[in-house]
Amino acid sequence: MDGRARPRDPDFRVSPVDRHGRTINPLVRDAAEQVGRRAIDHAEKLLIDPAIAANLLEEAAATVTRAMESERFCPQNPVRDLPSYLFSAFLRRVNRIKSRQLIQEDCVSALSLGSTDPADLQ
Q1: Coil, helix or strand for 88?
Q2: pLDDT tens, 49-63?
Q3: How many C-beta neighbours within 10 Å does residue 23 have?
Q4: Cα torsion at 54, 59, 65, 70 (round to 10°)?
């Protein structure tokens, strides 16, 4: 990547509120639309449904909005690369979802093999 901002994908839109009703700052929403296609593609490579990935991106955008509006972000220390910051927040959510999926798959595998040992289910 050459470090320049990518243009927004005209086909990818982010809602001004996430599924929990939290508003998303317009600057953060623009950043989400810039990284949206890359974020969805990344999630699909990990076998995560694109609709779930879109929800995760909106939740990450709402969280970044809250973080930017909180006291811990002061005007002297602004976020330098908002799209990258948002993408990192999205990746944390994707990784959390993926680890949950793997744990569930392991439990199902252990149960389908007929194991009754609780240690096998962990």
Answers
A1: helix
A2: 999 999 999 999 999
A3: 16
A4: -170
